Amino acid sequence: MIDRGMKIVLMYHDIYRESVSESGFQNASAFQYKVQVDEFEAHVAAVSEYCKNYPDVEVDFTFDDGGCSFYTLAAPILEKYDRRGTFFISTNYLDTPLFLSMEQLRMLAKRGHRVGSHSHSHPALTCLDEESIAEEWNVSVRKLKSCVIGGMTASVPNGDGNRVVMQKALEAGIQTLYTSVPTTKVNDYDGMKVVGRYVVYQGMSTTDVMSIVGNKSKRRLMYVKWWLLRMVKSVLGSNYNKLKGVLFPKPHSGLPIE
Average model confidence (pLDDT) for the chain? Predict the structure, then answer.
């Protein structure tokens, strides 16, 4: 079933050639989101062809964290297919090894890509007090202003937010806030748009990605699973991750994660 007039937002992190250690954060929780470059190009090619056939379906590519692969791999592939990405940056890591430099970020903006905040230090914002949440957004927004064309956008680190996180984002001047809620519905929070995204994991095939893009039933099922997890998370405690693994099994590429 084709959803005409729909915007679907895909959520990536780092892209790599041979090793997941080439770019971005270096921990197991980050590695599961890193996509091999040939797989990523296959995703972009398939989405681009789909959008040519169904021009009233819009698909956006977004990227979290700020790894150097945004500049070296992701952007050139997107440009090859006449597409542009939205790159969300944790500004504390700019100009550090394996992450973007400020100059690279400016170049991405000049080439037509969008730049937004992913907080300053990438904490779990819902675990912070209000003052610290505000500081995370404000510092990041200040650092990125010179690279932003149009309104300020942001994505929530770790994908999970609450009303305080949204309120402090709004007060920091953020006009559109992206989450990891698997939905195409755009909500409004006092004039700030709140947009859901579909996470792409390491090892997901082109068929997997296109089933998200082109299958409304698949997207609805993903949302139901997400909603169920959200409802039981506080009850299950430490067992939450086990249930999450059952409901959202992650495909593996077979490549070593090191």
Answer: 91
How many other β-carbons are positioned within 10 Å of the β-carbon of residue 90?
A: 24
Stated pTM of the model: 0.90
Q: Which residue bears the tokens 């791999």?
A: 73
* CATH pick for 7-247 out of 3.20.20.370, 3.20.20.60, 3.40.630.30, 2.40.50.140: 3.20.20.370
Per-domain boundaries in the chain: 7-247
Amino acid at 68: C
- Give the C-alpha separation, 224 to 116, whole Å: 29
CA separation for the pair 155, 63 (Å, rounded): 9
Q: In sequence order, what are the beta bridge partners of 193?
A: 176, 188
- The alpha carbon torsion through 145, 147, 148, 153 (nearest 10 deg) reads -80
DSSP, collapsed to helix, strand or coil, labels residue 96 as coil
Distance CA 70, CA 68 (A): 5
DSSP state of 97: T
> Per-residue pLDDT tens for 106-144?
999 999 999 999 999 999 999 999 999 999 999 999 999
pLDDT, tens digit, for every residue of 25-65?
Answer: 999 999 999 999 999 999 999 999 999 999 999 999 999 99
